[in-house]
Structure formats: C-alpha cells, structure tokens
Amino acid sequence: MRVKNDMQNGRDELLRISNLKTYFYTSDGIVPAVDGIDLVIRRGRTVGLVGESGCGKSVTSLSIMRLVPPPGQIVAGSQITLDGVDLLALTQEQMYEIRGGRIAMIFQEPMTSLNPVFTVGDQIAEAILTHKKVSRAQAHEQTIDLLRQVGIPQPEQRYHAYPHEMSGGMRQRVMIAMALSCQPELIIADEPTTALDVTIQAQILELLRALKESHNTALLLITHDLGVIAEMAQEVAVMYAGKIVEQADVVTLFRDPKHPYTQGLLSSIPSLSSDRATRLNVIKGTVPNLVRLPPGCRFAPRCPQAMPICREREPDLVAHGQTRVACWLYENAPSGGN
After folding, report:
1. 197-236 pLDDT per residue, tens
2. String of DSSP letters for 281-312
3. Residue 223, φ and ψ in degrees, nearest 5
4. How far apart are CA 268 and CA 260, in angstroms?
5. Max Cα separation, the chain?
6. Rounded Cα–Cα distance for residues 317 and 308 (Å)
7. Tens digit of pLDDT for each residue in 306-330?
8. How far apart are the C-alpha atoms of 313 and 33, rounded to whole Å?
9. CA 36/CA 56 separation, integer angstroms
10. Where are the alpha helices (DSSP H) in 197-238?
11. Hey, CA dihedral for 80, 86, 88, 93, is it positive or negative?
12. Could you count the other beta carbons within 10 Å of the beta carbon of residue 67?
C-alpha cells in the first residue's frame, strides 16, 4: 500500500523545490532570504506557506516565477522543477510562456499590480492574447466570462472600469480572474486577503477554493494568518528566517505542533473560549538579522526550550511521525509512525 501511495504521489507531483537558496548581495553583507528549502506541491492540493513577515515566504514565490529583483540572486545548486522541467534552466522567453500560462500569481496588493492607465478588462484580455491563439473579440468574451466567474456584478460594464474605480475586494477578484485567464496548473497567492475586511476576506477565500476545485488547480497559499491556513490548506510548511522549520498535513500541525516556533505561533492566536482577562501569549525576542545570523538554530535565542547544542549546531529537517521538523528536541528521538 505504501508503494502504491508513493507511485500515486509521484504522478500527482506538479512542482518540486529542492535546496532553493535565494540570496541578496548587499553592501551590508549577504542576506540569505531563502536558505535551502525543499517543498513539493501536488495537483489539486493547497499548500500553505506560513511565517512572520520577513521570513522568506514572498521571496520563495518570486523565485518560483524567476522574478527576484536585484540584488537578489538564486544561488547555484537550487532546483525548481515543473513536471520535471527545470525552470532555472529555461531562457527568459521560455519563462514568459510559463508565467501566466502554467503558473499564475496573485500578488499581495492588487492596486500596485494593476496598471492604472488601462481598464481591468483590457489587462485581463491582454493576458489571454499573450498565451492563447484567440482573436481580440474572443479574448473580450472570455474576459467578461472570467469577471462573471469571480463574482463581479455587471461584468460587461466593469470590463471598462479602471483599477481606482473599484474597491479593494473587487480589485482582488480582478487579480484572481487574471490568474485564471489561461487555466494555469498552479496559482501562487501571496497574502491574497491582506487589507481586506473579514467579510470580503471570507468571500475571496471561498472563491479561491471553489475555482481551485472546479479547475483542479494546485494552490500555494502564502500568509501569516494561521486561520486562513486552517481553512484552506491541506499541507503546511512553517518558515523562520529563511528556513522551513516544520512541515505536516494541516490537521497534524494544528493538533500536534512539534517545533517551539510553531507552538508559539499557535498559542498566540486568541480564542473565543478563553477568559478576556487572559493575556495573549507572545514569542519573546525578535526575528534575527539575516546578515548576522546566530550560530546554531536560528530560533534558539527566542526558544524557551533551547539547549546548549541549539546554539552550536543547526538541526536538519527530519521525519518525526507524520511531521518533518528541524529541532534538536527530535533529532535523536524515536521517529514513530511509519
């Protein structure tokens, strides 16, 4: 049964990231924004990438799209493969076909991603014309259909609206329509509900879920909001200071978090059942300066369970039951499970 499952997972594998390192070479020193992470995304699945601001989540997404801005650089030895094709070996012209065609991205702030001098309809239609062999009239009709799919009322009229004439929630729906325009196999959503009120946030998440299921599209969901992860993801990777420190399916991670950082994140979430007078738990200290990282485990200076070895050697990401965790608390512990 295990062999059969492994074969099935191999067929379902869409994107594989191996030893990804993306460094920024600055006048202050080298910033290892992403420092040797591994991640697998399967067809039709939602993988959540979670962590504090500055941990490397967005740089990971830009690395997949090969849009890392200078002075950033993907370091030699990294691998990003889409259906077995190494994206890092492709030319820029070949990547143009991948971006928007097979992999689409919903950026964090739609107002800065949409061109203010073109109507939203023209911008979606342009994406269709770039990747599909259709006429402008067909692209126009497909755009209106996409606007209707993402729940924008009066799509025929909204086609001619400019970004500033729409609300934040409507602009985010436009970005989702643009991402879906060429039926990509993978959508990367980078903080898709940032700055939206809770009602609009719920609508956007439900829209993403419904469209993902109807198109069997894989979704990489990048967020700092563990509530969004619990609602949307099947698998979760927790990042800290450029490293993945814990990976598990969503039920396992929320039920039995292993890494002290993950435990701290979960315990800092307010609960409706808790006493109002109870103070929220906080993770003491601050995220380390990536130019001057501490020796050993990067979380050790903030960890309430730190041991001497934690400040001397960096732990590997190892299997412990159904979880992979980078922590000396489990390095020599029985693995359990299979």
Report:
1. 788 788 888 888 887 888 888 999 999 888 889 989 999 9
2. P---S-PPPTTSPPSS-TTGGG-TT--GGGGT
3. -160, 160
4. 12
5. 67
6. 19
7. 999 999 999 999 999 999 999 999 8
8. 20
9. 11
10. 198-215, 226-232
11. negative
12. 12
- Give the 3-state DSSP-derived string for 229-285, with helices as H, strands as E and coil as C: HHHHCCEEEEEECCEEEEEEEHHHHHHCCCCHHHHHHHHCCCCCCCCCCCCCCCCCC
In a 10 Å sphere around its CB, with 0-12 CB exposed, 13-18 middle and 19+ buried, how is residue 276 labelled?
A: exposed
User: Residue 191 in contact with residue 224, Cβ under 8 Å?
Assistant: yes
Q: Is the peptide bond before 116 cis (omega within 30 degrees of 0)?
A: no
143 burial class (0-12, 13-18, 19+ CB within 10 angstroms)? buried
Beta bridge partners, 247, equal: 237, 324
* Token pair listed for 147: 């606007």
Nearest one of 6, 17, 45, 37 to 185, comparing CA atoms: 45
Q: Which of 142, 211, 134, 131 is nearest to 172 (CA)?
A: 211
Q: Tokens standing for 311?
A: 């400040």
The answer to whether the beta carbons of residues 235 and 324 sit under 8 Å apart is no
Main-chain dihedrals φ then ψ at residue 305, nearest 5 degrees: -110, 15
